[in-house]
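Side project, low priority. Logging it here so it doesn't get lost.
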Amino acid sequence: MNDLIIQNISELILPKSTDRPLKGHELDELTIIENGTIVVKDGKIIYSGAHTEEYEAHETIDARGKVVSPALIDAHTHLVHGGSREHEMALKRQGVSYLEILKQGGGILSTVKATREASEEELFKKAEYNLLTMIHHGVLGVESKSGYGLDRATELKQLRVSHRLAEKYQLDMRHTFLGPHAVPAGRDGEEFMQEMIDFLPEVKEYADFADVFCETGFFTIEESRRYMQAANALGMRVKIHADEIDPLGGLELAIEQNAISADHLVAASEEGKQQLHDSDTVAVLLPGTTFYLNKDS
């Protein structure tokens, strides 16, 4: 006996194919089935398509007048962090750039300070509230980054919270180590990067991916390459914050290192975009940060 049947679905929305990753215009192609049915057994969908009477289940849901679609995925979140930076919007409206705010101790560095000062329980409760908001809006696949510790203790604290949330809510969640998110105040960038590389074998137990912020004022192409190569050598898949502000070639580096994703890409070069077309690296675009940075998309 099956667990659940959802029937009389007014519109069942499905991708054209699920046997491989979709690219380009394939992502725009949807199958919309009227009067659809979904059958679930042991927590997995065993049938999705046109109305059928072939199945029985312990529970039946009548979805007449409803739209049913796959859950949403948020592939780039900084879910676990302390504090907030909404006050910086006033500075942005005055024309102060993000890099100038960073030099003043704001931006990432202000969140680092708040995250270090927060207890694990405080971080859990804050992240849980935001995660439940995401769930209520249909997001059931979440990538959760660290990156607001910039030290061993706080980065592990963030990753532990991320794992606790995944376990509590039984989400399809992936955990990303973003140790090289910024250079801590008073630290040498090269020295700090080496510290994060040396930390990778330990953090591998907690993280599915290793990420790096390759950008002006953060980490160079050369530093980011060293980090990604070290993570790849350990069998960790890599991601990269690439070309968010300046066109440094982060997208090309992502493709070179077979990154699972390159994120932001507002300033990516046309050459990089062409290489992306022929690669297996996924572009993750973040219009919210583009708006915050007051940049053209």
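Brief comment: Residues 239 and 288 are 19 Å apart (CA to CA).
Revisit when time allows.
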